[in-house]
Structures are given as structure tokens and as C-alpha cells.
């Protein structure tokens, strides 16, 4: 678990304490003081039997930023060192650092740490620093309380920090405290758990896929489910049985649903309807969480972006593959510099959908899933690579795999799989492989940087739980070439809450991060509308590349209004729901002919709720 971080800002009053009789303060003088410092830290912070602080003590005493005789202090009792603190200025950032505040265990419980805090702050306040920082842990209860009394403020710098600090306040009977971002800017006043009663109110459109978001609201104290909408009444009735009707309203009319008092609308409806439904919700003053995909053509992309800009509301894209254990950790390690410069990545989301296809299409011939191209569902494989690298795609070449017997049995009239080779703005390249028609499923990601590689386990590696597992093969510096690979932990402070259901816990993070953003946390990891388009456009233009004979296609930057203007009237898509939209084929080699009788058989399977393994075998030539 990551440590808590706290800042003290210049100008905060420093309370003066008179040392009790027999106590005094001294400075570091020689090597024997180093050994005393190590022993105090080992005894006062981690207990006996740990020798790691000896090497660490050598490091502290030799750091360029630290002058031991100036920056290392002891609290003494009758001349014997019984407590210590190091207070120095980090030259590169011009920030103060209070390090290793420690009191020997036989002197605990006397309130002595406050003298060390006072000494450190008086020393650092002489320098013109931006702020003074320290790190600590919740279990060091007296230390945390002492830092708060000394004027230190909590810092929002990692996932789950606000929740952890609210628990700290509750335990220490403190009603509220100001919290700051890592750059020292004010975040907001936070309140102890029992006083923070504001829940983000959710309405969910889509009683199938939306169940995950409904269950999040039912199981977590930061969200409340207030409305559910679905046009299929039997599905709506199932939700009534599951969640009850006491505090939840149910709708079959989307416009009436939008009149309900709620903060966020979750769009878990048909994927080719997300953009117009999101636009309508935001124009009604609602934040939006949209399931994949964000839109189905360029006209909708432009309209969606401009609606977000005009309303100033939050648009969050629910690409959950970005928050699976391995990909979430990959992004964190790239951002902290462990991977070095991003050079190449591969993403694979292969989903054999034959066993479930009749359940999710209901045997409808023109269901959007039967009409989408092989490139449509690209963001599960492309999205994590975009999110990890933080880069915009600029060029793509697409490759369509052939229509196959599996797709025929499913009733899906497109190529079974697709590949995009994508160039990012830095010149780095990523490869995306995805499809609903492979013979076997697999979700897998690998990224290369100037300092090595990070790679998830394959889905067939059941002993290592596929994308829950991450392998690291990284150098400490570019060119070390040590070649040591090992498995690393993918857990974080919220892993115990996220669970493994619902896409390996990824859906939990999508909801949690959005709630944090709605509540004002600008650090919350939310995929905004621009990044959503960066994930969608490689697939869209990858298919246009195939239709143009395999030529590379430039990917527009829709952050720029001038580029949007070139595309705002482009309506090309495979399943035009709006009048005037231009239809392009679902399969580049021509329309696939599947007889109506086949869809009738699929519909009967759905109606009769026949399990896949027990169903009649749908031969292509039957």
C-alpha cells in the first residue's frame, strides 16, 4: 500500500515548545552519530532485526542535497540520542523534506515527536521553499496526529487517497481538513466518513450490460442508483426484482428518464446509439459514462466533442480494458518513468462470441452486432495502448481477416477479425488485434520502452490468471541490458474492493474514478472525449484503409476545430440509424448472404433459453 503524503506550507504558524528538563537538541557530528541515527530509525520505525537502514543511513549521509551537520538533528536525553529527524531542501524541486521522524521505543508515549517536528519546520522555514513534504502510514497513529497538529495537510496523489484520509479523520475525531494536489494547489476540504453523506446519483440506460454499474451503486457508499431505463420491459422487470422499487424509478422512455434527478447517466444501450444519447443527456445537464463505442461515424464524433465543450460536463468513456490489473499497472509504471520512452506496444482482444451471440443479438438479422465491421470493436485492444502511452494516433493501416464459418453460424456479416498498425505522434508504433470471430479467446498486452518490456500473461496461462498478471523485464537505465524478467504485483490500494468479477475488477475502477471526478478530483483517471476518439478512430480509419485497398490513412486530430470542419458532415457507417447517413458495407469484399431462416433458428434458441452446448448444431449449409 502506498504511503500517505503530507505538505506544510510556508507561513503556517510553528508552535513553539519548551523542551522538558533533561532534554536537548544536537546536530550530526561524526560517523558515530550516523550509527546512532540508523539504530533510532530501526528501533523506532520498523523494529529490531532489520538491517536495511545501515545502507540507507550511508545513502542519506552522502546525498548531495543533504549536509548532515546542517540537516540531521537529534533529540537527546541527558546527552544520549533518543530521537532523530532529517530536514533538508531538495534542490531540483525547491521543496523541503522532513525525513525519518523517529523516537526510540523506550521513549514512546511522552509526546516527544512534536519537538522533532518543530525543529524540522523551524530549520526549513529559513529557506524559501514552495512547501515541506513528508510521507507516513495510517498505522503510525500518533505520528499522523502530530503532523496534523503541526499544520501538515493531506495530499491527493494516488488512487484511493481521499477515502483513506477520510478514514483517518474519522478515527481521530477530526471533522474536516483541507487537502491539496501533488503540485501544491488546493484540491478541496474533505470530511470524515460519517460527515460525508454526498453520494453521486446514477441513472442507468440498459438493463443488461448496465447491471454492473447498478451493482456498483448497491455495493459502495459513494454512489446511489436512482433510475433505470430499458426499452425491453422483461429486462426492466428483472431489475425491479433484483434492486426493488422503493428508491429507484423505472422507465421505458428515455426522454422521461432524463427528467429524473440524477448526476450521471450511464449509457449501456446499443453501441451504435451512444453518441446521440450522450448528446441528449448532456444537454439535459447530466454527466455521462458511455460504454464502448463513443460513436459510429465522424459526424457523430464532431457533434459529441462539441457538446462536451459547450456544456462543460464530464464525459467519461468506459473502456474497461485500460483498468484491468496489468494494463493499469503498465500505465502507472510508464508514468513514473520505469519503462523509459514508449517505443512499441501490442494489444490483443480476441473474443470467440459464438456461444453467446444468439443471447446478445436475440436472433435479430439487422442487430447492430451483425452489421458492424471487423474493425468496430477496436478500443478493447487499442485503448490501453493509447492510455498507457498518453499519445495521439496519427496514421493507421488496416487489415481485415476473412469472413469464416463461425461468423456465418453467429449470423454476423463481417470479417471475423481485424488488425491495425498504428503510428503514434512520437513515431512509436502499436499493433491492435481484435475480433468477435476467432476460434479461441485471448486478452493480452505488451509494451516496449527504452528501458525494457512489460507484458501480461496470456489467457491460456490459467495458473497466472491472464491479464491479472504482469511480467517486468526492465533495466535501471537505458543500455544496462541486464535481462532479468519476473512477475510483479498489480495490486493497489483499491484492489481488495474491486474484486475479480466484472472484467477482473476493471469496471469498479471506471465507476470509482468517474465518481472521484464528479466530486472534483482532477487527478481521477477518467478517459475523456478526446482520448475516447483517439481509441476509436484507428479502427474507423483502419476499415477505410481496407476499403481503399490497404493504403495508410491519416487520423485527424479532433481537438482542433479546423480539422473537425473537414469531417462534420461525414456520415459513413455500417448501420445507419439516422436518415441521411451513408451506409458502407460490413464486409469489404461485399455483402454476405445469410438466409432469414437461419436468424429464425437463432431467435428460437434465444426465446427457448437453450444453452449453447445443448443447442442444435447450426451447420452452414443446413
Task: Tell me what the structure shows.
This protein has a domain at 4-195: Aminopeptidase. It is 33% helix and 22% strand. The protein has 22 helices and 24 strands. The strands form 3 sheets. It has a 9-stranded mixed sheet with strand order 2-3-4-5-6-1-7-8-9. A hairpin with a 4-residue loop joins strand 4 and strand 5 (95-103). The N and C termini lie far apart (58 Å). The model is unreliable at 47-56 and 610-622 (pLDDT under 50).
Distance between the termini: 58 Å
Question: For this structure, what is the CATH homologous superfamily of the domain at 4-195?
Answer: Gcn5-related N-acetyltransferase (GNAT)
The CATH class of the domain at 4-195, by name, is Alpha Beta
By secondary-structure content and strand pairing, the structural class works out as alpha/beta
Q: Largest beta sheet, briefly?
A: 9 strands, mixed
Q: Identify the strand order in the major beta sheet.
A: 2-3-4-5-6-1-7-8-9
CATH-derived topology of the domain at 4-195? Aminopeptidase
Poorly predicted runs of 5 or more residues? 47-56, 610-622
Question: Total helix count?
Answer: 22
Strand-residue proportion: 15-25%
**Oligomer kind:** single chain
Amino acid at each position: 500500500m502506498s504511503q500517505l503524503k503530507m505538505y506544510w506550507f510556508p507561513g503556517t504558524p510553528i508552535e513553539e515548545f519548551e523542551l522538558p528538563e533533561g532534554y536537548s537538541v544536537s546536530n550530526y557530528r561524526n560517523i558515530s552519530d550516523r550509527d546512532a541515527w540508523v539504530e533510532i530509525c530501526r528501533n523506532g520505525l520498523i523494529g529490531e532485526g532489520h538491517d536495511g537502514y545501515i545502507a540507507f543511513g550511508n545513502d542519506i549521509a552522502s546525498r548531495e542535497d543533504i549536509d548532515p551537520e546542517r540537516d540531521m538533528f537529534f533529540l537527546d536525553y541527558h546527552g544520549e540520542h533518543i530521537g532523530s529527524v532529517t530536514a533538508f531542501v531538495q534542490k531540483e524541486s525547491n521543496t523541503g523534506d522532513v525525513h525519518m521522524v523517529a523516537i526510540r521505543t523506550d521513549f514512546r508515549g511522552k509526546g516527544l515527536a512534536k519537538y522533532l517536528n518543530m525543529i524540522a519546520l523551524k530549520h526549513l522555514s529559513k529557506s524559501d521553499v514552495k512547501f515541506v513534504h513528508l510521507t507516513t502510514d495510517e498505522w503510525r497513529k500518533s505520528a499522523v496526529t502530530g503532523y496534523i497538529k503541526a499544520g501538515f495537510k493531506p495530499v491527493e496523489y494516488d488512487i484511493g487517497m481521499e477515502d483513506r484520509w477520510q478514514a483517518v479523520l474519522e478515527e481521530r475525531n477530526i471533522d474536516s481538513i483541507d487537502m491539496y494536489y501533488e503540485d501544491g494547489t488546493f484540491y478541496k476540504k474533505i470530511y470524515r466518513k460519517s460527515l460525508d453523506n454526498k453520494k453521486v446519483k446514477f441513472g442507468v440506460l440498459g438493463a443488461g450490460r448496465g447491471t454492473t454499474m447498478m451493482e456498483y451503486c448497491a455495493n459502495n457508499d459513494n454512489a446511489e442508483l436512482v433510475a433505470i431505463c430499458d426499452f425491453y420491459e422483461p429486462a426492466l422487470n428483472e431489475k425491479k426484482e433484483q434492486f426493488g422499487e422503493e428508491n429507484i424509478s423505472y422507465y421505458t422512455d428515455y426522454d422521461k428518464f432524463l427528467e429524473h434527478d440524477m448526476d450521471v447517466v450511464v449509457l449501456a444501450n446499443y453501441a451504435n446509439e451512444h453518441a446521440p444519447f450522450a448528446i441528449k443527456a448532456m444537454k439535459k445537464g447530466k454527466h455521462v459514462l458511455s460504454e464502448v463505442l463513443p460513436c459510429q461515424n465522424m459526424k457523430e464524433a464532431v457533434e459529441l466533442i462539441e457538446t462536451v465543450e459547450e456544456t462543460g460536463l464530464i464525459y467519461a468513456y468506459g473502456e474497461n480494458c485500460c483498468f484491468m490489473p496489468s494494463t493499469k499497472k503498465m500505465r502507472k509504471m510508464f508514468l513514473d518513468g520505469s519503462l523509459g520512452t514508449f517505443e512499441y506496444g501490442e494489444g490483443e482482444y480476441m473474443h470467440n462470441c459464438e456461444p453467446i451471440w444468439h443471447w446478445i443479438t436475440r436472433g435479430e438479422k439487422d442487430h447492430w452486432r451483425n452489421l458492424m465491421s471487423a474493425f468496430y470493436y477496436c478500443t478493447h485492444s487499442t485503448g490501453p495502448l493509447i492510455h498507457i502511452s498518453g499519445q495521439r494516433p496519427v496514421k493507421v493501416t488496416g487489415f481485415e481477416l476473412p469472413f469464416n464459418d463461425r461468423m456465418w453460424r453467429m449470423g454476423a456479416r463481417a470479417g471475423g477479425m481485424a488488425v491495425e498498425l498504428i503510428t503514434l505522434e512520437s513515431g512509436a508504433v502499436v499493433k491492435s488485434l481484435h475480433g468477435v470471430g476467432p476460434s479461441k479467446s485471448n486478452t493480452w498486452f505488451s509494451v516496449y520502452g527504452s528501458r525494457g518490456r512489460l507484458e501480461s500473461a496470456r489467457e491460456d496461462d490459467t495458473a497466472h490468471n491472464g491479464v491479472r498478471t504482469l511480467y517486468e523485464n526492465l533495466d535501471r537505465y537505458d543500455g544496462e541490458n541486464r535481462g532479468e524478467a519476473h512477475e510483479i504485483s498489480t495490486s493497489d490500494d483499491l484492489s481488495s474492493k474491486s474484486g475479480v468479477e466484472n472484467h477482473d475488477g476493471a469496471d469498479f475502477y471506471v465507476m470509482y474514478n468517474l465518481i472521484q471526478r464528479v466530486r472534483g478530483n482532477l487527478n481521477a483517471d477518467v478517459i475523456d472525449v478526446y482520448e475516447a476518439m483517439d481509441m476509436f478512430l484507428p479502427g474507423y480509419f483502419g476499415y477505410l484503409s481496407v476499403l481503399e485497398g490497404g493504403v495508410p490513412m491519416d487520423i485527424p486530430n479532433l481537438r482542433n476545430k479546423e480539422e473537425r470542419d473537414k469531417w462534420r458532415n461525414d456520415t459513413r457507417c455500417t448501420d445507419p440509424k439516422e436518415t441521411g447517413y451513408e451506409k458502407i458495407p460490413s464486409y469489404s469484399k461485399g455483402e454476405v448472404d445469410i438466409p432469414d431462416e437461419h436468424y429464425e433458428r437463432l431467435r428460437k434458441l434465444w426465446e427457448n433459453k437453450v444453452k449453447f452446448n445443448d443447442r442444435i448444431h447450426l451447420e452452414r449449409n443446413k
